[in-house]
Structures are given as structure tokens and as C-alpha cells.
Amino acid sequence: xxxxxxxxxxxxxxxxxxxxxxxxxxxxxxxxxxxxxxxxxxxxxxxxxxxxxxxxxxxxxxxxxxxxxxxxxxxxxxxxxxxxxxxxxxxxxxxxxxxxxxxxxxxxxxxxxxxxxxxxxxxxxxxxxxxxxxxxxxxxxxxxxxxxxxxxxxxxxxxxxxxxxxxxxxxxxxxxxxxxxxxxxxxxxxxxxxxxxxxxxxxxxxxxxxxxxxxxxxxxxxxxxxxxxxxxxxxxxxxxxxxxxxxxxxxxxxxxxxxxxxxxxxxxxxxxxxxxxxxxxxxxxxxxxxxxxxxxxxxxxxxxxxxxxxxxxxxxxxxxxxxxxxxxxxxxxxxxxxxxxxxxxxxxxxxxxxxxxxxxxxxxxxxxxxxxxxxxxxxxxxxxxxxxxxxxxxxxxxxxxxxx
Length: 404
Hints:
By secondary structure, the protein is mainly α. It contains 16 helices and no strands. The radius of gyration is 21 Å and the shape is globular.
């Protein structure tokens, strides 16, 4: 099982690393060449783009992993894929409408030209069919195109984005490269895997959204909870605070994308394996996460000082805390579907969603009412994540003892 899963993890992780590191590597360049307020506006744009991807995905990979095995014929698979694509387009439309309203009422501080430039990135990044290549266990086919386009993105940023007036161009380049990756992936689905768009009604698209909602909420609470905190910061924080936080969050997102891919591959491959075998596999990756977190925690001071000017040294403490949060939430992902899903069943795992949403909701409300301090926000995120992990460990111990 380990060798088989590692073969699937490698290309998934490669795609995630390329995508996330391309954005991450561009951050020091932007920080060095742009005014802090302009840098903060780009940070807000990235938060809106990446939050849009989470909402448009709507728990899609986890949902598809559970139901794909029941779609044996090409016709059923094409119908399912069509419904997924249409549902994502609806979700993208709804998300963009909400962001438009936020901008219209000055709830979010972002120039309209920035928003227009990031719309293609939201749509095409949201419908990027990695979910299809995941369930068919062919993610390696997207590694090369992802690498080439993101390399073009980085080279273009370094060459053309050198002052404040170039900030809009950064978003245009970002959107263009993401769009081309998605178009390539869909074209390959059509010509190599015989995907044909079936007739799809709006009712079918919304039925898919409804059926996958519990997977989305679980994914939000266990994989992307920091996005809720990020949006809260964009609604209340200054461009400087958002820029400082985004440096740490982009590092977090890079690690998060990798650990998320690993937990999804483990789930796909462990469904038919025993609980003890899954435990061993999970423990193997938990140990790797621990050593990776320790490594980056110890070098974080030197890393930030090497990549950024003294104006950004205040990010060091936040960066270290986000590393610990990444470790805690990566452990949450490892025991979410792979362990708890096997131990108590997916439906009971989804019953935990209201508890975890409430925990983070109370923490965010407390932070908004008591202090807008960035340090306090990250500290509360860490404490709440640890409570979430402890609850899941308690449930594992309780239900494992009750096994016959």
C-alpha cells in the first residue's frame, strides 16, 4: 500500500509544490519592489483567489473519491463530470457576485481593476480538474504543464513587475498562466479520456452541490480553516497587516497543499485496507510532518531575514506560529477521513462539522470583539486547531477501545 500510494502522492505533491511555490517565490520579489500598501492589496487579491478556489471546489475531491467507484460506465462518468463542472461554474458565479457586493460597499479594500484581473484566476483555478486526475490516479500527466506555466509566471514577474504601476500586471500574468493550465487539463480529458459534455440541467448541478456540501464543510474545517480567518482579516485589517500575514500564509498554504494531497491519496488507497494497516501508514507521515515542522521552525529566522528587508522582520513570530498550526492541522487531516472515516464512518465524521465550525466561529468572534491584533488572531487559530485535534484523538481512543 505504501509504495502504491507514494507513486500517486509524488505527482500530486509535485503539482501542489509547483503551484504553491510559484506564488510563494513571487512574494519576496513583490515585497522588495512594491510599496507596502500596494503589496497589501496584492495580498488581499491572493486571499480572494485562493478562498474562491476552496469554495468552488466545494469538497469535490473528497466527494468524488467516495462516489467514483460507483460510476463504472463512461456514460455515467461523463454525466458526473458534467454535473461537477456546471456546479463549479455556478459556485464561481455566486462567489464573484458576493465579492462584487463586498467591493461595492467598501467592505473589502481592493481596486476594481485588480478585481477584474483576478476573475479568470478564480474561475479557471476553481474548475481545474485535478479531481478527475486524482480519482483516475493519473495526476502525473499534469506535472509538466504545471511546471512550464508556473515557471513562465515566475520569469514574467521578475522581468515585468518592478514597481507599483506593475502590480496589476502581476494579477494578469497569474490569471493567464492558471487559465492555460486548466484549458490543457480539460482538453486532455476530452482527447485522451473520451470525456464528452452531457446535457446538464441546473437542477442536476445544484443536486451535486447539495450532495457534496457535507464534504465541503468537512474540508473547510479540517483542510482550509485558515481561509475563514484570512477573510476575517481582509475585512478588518490594514494593507500592512494583510501583507505581513500573507507572507506567512503563503508558506502555510504550500505545506497545507502537500499534506492535504497526502491525506486524500491515503484515503483513496486505504478504503479497502484494515484499520491497523492504515494506522501504520498514518503514523509514518505524522513523523515526517513533525521533522519537517521542526526544520522550518528552526530556520525561519534566517529564512525571513534572507528573503525580506528589515521592514518585514515582524513576520518571523507569525511565521513560526503558522508552522505549528500547519503541523497540528496536518495531523487533523491525517486522522480525518483516513482514520475516523474508517473507524466511525464518513457520515459520523460529518456530524462533527457543526462542532468544529462553532469552535472556530466563537474564536473568530472573540478576536473581532476583543482585539484586531494579528498576533492574537494567529494565537487563537493555533489554540482552536489544537482543541480540534484533541477532540479527534479522544474520539479515536474512545471508538478504538469499543471495537470487538
